[in-house]
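Quiz preparation item.
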């Protein structure tokens, strides 16, 4: 188990996804418990949903040149 934990830490930037998050928490019971309880609350609709609070808009950057002002 220690070897697996070391490999996960070494490759932390390469690995992505929920399965790797679960594997990382196996050595820390409090982290695992927190993740399981968060998942349960989400499934039961008891978590805060921030999806309606995110707004994405186009942003234009205007760059000034020395010759003719704003591009």
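Solution:
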């Amino acid at each position: 188990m220690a070897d697996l934990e070391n490999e996960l830490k070494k490759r932390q930037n390469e690995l992505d996804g929920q399965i790797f998050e679960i594997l990382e928490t196996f050595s820390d019971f409090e982290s695992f418990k927190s993740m399981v309880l968060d998942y349960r609350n989400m499934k039961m609709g008891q978590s805060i949903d921030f999806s309606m609070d995110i707004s994405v808009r186009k942003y234009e950057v205007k760059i000034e040149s020395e010759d003719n002002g704003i591009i």
